Structure formats: C-alpha cells, structure tokens
Amino acid sequence: MLTIENYIYDFNKDNVPAAVCDPGSVVHFVSRDCFDGQIRTERDLVDHMDFSHTNPATGPLYVNGAEPGDVFAVDILDIRTADHGVIATFAGLGALSKTCQVRTKIVSVKDGVVYFNDVAWEAEPMIGVIGTAPAGEAVPSGYSFCCGGNMDSRLIKKGATVYLPVQVAGGLLAMGDVHASMGDGEVCETGVEIAADIFVRIRLIKQFELRWPLTETEDMWYVNTNGKTCDLAIQRGYEELQRLVMQAYGWDATDAAMYLSVQARLEANQAVLDHNETDEEGDTFRVGVPKLAGKPRLIP
C-alpha cells in the first residue's frame, strides 16, 4: 500500500507530487490536525499560532492517466484517529464569537467515543479538507473552491465517496483536516481537530463534466459548494444539482426544479458567517437528493 506523509498548504498546479499511483490504488494518507501540531496543551491558544502552517493537506498525489475534464472518485475506506483532539475558539471568528472567550480544550477520543466535560458521544471521523489542484490560481488549503478544499462536510466519512473535478494532469489530490466529530455549520470554526490515518481508493472517471464536488452516501447524492454569502453557495448547489438530475434522468429544467423543490435536502457544511472578500473564503453548503431505485446514477 502506498503511504504519503508530505504536507502542503495550498492546492496548486505547481506543487511537486509527493507520490504517484495508478487508478484503482488504495492509498494511506497520514494527516496532521488542522493546527499542524502547534496546539499541545490547553495553555496553547490560537492567538499565538503561525497561521501560515494551518490546515495542512497530505499530498499531492499524481494519478496516472488523469487529465483535465476527468473526475476522481475517492472511496473513503477508513479513518483512524489519534486518541485526543483539540477544540478551540478564536477572537472575533464564528457565529457565536461575541459570547466566547478564546479557549483551548483537549478532549479524549478513545474506543470510538469522544469525551467532552461530563458528556460523551460516538465519534464520527470525517475529512475536512479534500481536493485537487485548480488550473488557475492556487487556493489555500483553508479555503473551499470548485475542486474541493476545506469543505468541512461531516458526511465525508468512512463509506462515502467523494467525486472531484480534475483540472490538471494527474489531478494532484490532497486531503487532511480530520475531525473526530463536527456539527453542521462548525459554529466556533473548529470541530474535534485530530491527527489521523486516512485510507482511500482512488478511481478515475474519464471525461465527465462536474462543476462542484459531489458526495455519495448510502442513500443520497450531495453537491458541495461555497460562496461569499450563504445565498450564493446555496444557489450554486441547486444549479449544479439541477444540471446533474436533468442529465441523468432526461428531464427538462422545469421538471428538475420541481423535483428539487419537493425532494432536495439543504444542509450546512461550514457556515460560520464571517465577512469574506472572495468566494474561496466563503460558507460551504451541501444540497442533496435521495438515490432513486430504477433511475440512473447522477455520476457513472
């Protein structure tokens, strides 16, 4: 099995591949937490971090035969976390920042359970950052964009498949920023940030148009988008989902819109409502529809 332990801080077509594989390979990505190991105790506050070394993504991986216009299908086989993670608050950041002190909390994650104060719940490890390199300007790994990045969807976990557009030769896939647990919206801008070992299978779909990342679960399809505002992110999600439904089911735009109006699911990935100057810094949402027995898949 191929193992990768190289770290990047932007999705960039000029990044040198850390490894090369063929389609169908199973790859082990060794990921650091989003703080790049800078937070070790509860005395370590985010105010004193080097923010140029946050949200490290493991990679990039060059996949032989991948060309612009293709799509990666990344099957998430397993996510094995460390035995503790970090939750932190930031001054002035997050929907509830006016009510919060800057604080660091170290929480135990043992035998699949997260322990927080006097409560505990089942861990659901998920990948916060996963994406491919854009053909244009580099995108910091803390941002989301049309090829993925920091989408922070709690559905990107074991058993799911993430579909990512390929814009450059080899795709240059990278991932990291695992959370042992994260709520929709990521209200204080952190989940249970944790180091982890990620195991995925990478398949290649040739020449399929995908404008935004797509997550497949056991019974749903979700388009993941971002935007400078929540409204823009949501609009983009509906538009891409409408296009995929029309293409797969042979319906016109009006019937597809009607179907979304009665069947679509709208959920927040990361919606911390901070002021943003570019789309790549914006809120991320997922817009989904159920899988239908007897109907084609939204993606081959």
Please tag this protein with its features:
nine-stranded mixed β-sheet, seven-stranded mixed β-sheet, 2 helices, 22 strands, globular
What's the structural blueprint in terms of helices and strands?
Blueprint: E1 2-4, E2 7-8, E3 10-11, E4 19-21, E5 26-31, E6 57-63, E7 71-81, E8 84-88, E9 104-110, E10 113-116, E11 119-122, E12 126-131, E13 139-140, E14 144-145, E15 148-150, E16 161-165, E17 173-179, E18 196-205, E19 214-216, E20 220-227, H1 230-249, H2 253-263, E21 265-270, E22 283-290
Parallel strand pairs: 1-5, 4-6
Antiparallel strand pairs: 2-6, 3-13, 5-18, 6-17, 7-16, 7-18, 8-9, 9-10, 10-11, 12-15, 12-17, 14-15, 16-19, 19-20, 20-22, 21-22
Helix pairs in contact: 1-2
Task: Give a structural overview.
The protein is mainly beta and 300 residues long. The protein is 10% helix and 38% strand. It has 2 helices and 22 strands. It has a 9-stranded mixed sheet. Strands 2, 4, 6, 12, 14, 15 and 17 form a 7-stranded mixed sheet that branches. β9 and β10 form a beta hairpin. α1 packs across α2. The mean pLDDT is 95.
Tell the overall outline: globular
Major sheet strand order: 1-5-18-7-16-19-20-22-21
Instruction: Write down the overall mean pLDDT.
Output: 95
Give the DSSP E fraction (strand runs of 2 or more residues): 35-45%
Radius of gyration from the alpha-carbon trace, in angstroms: 18 Å
Distinct helical segment count? 2
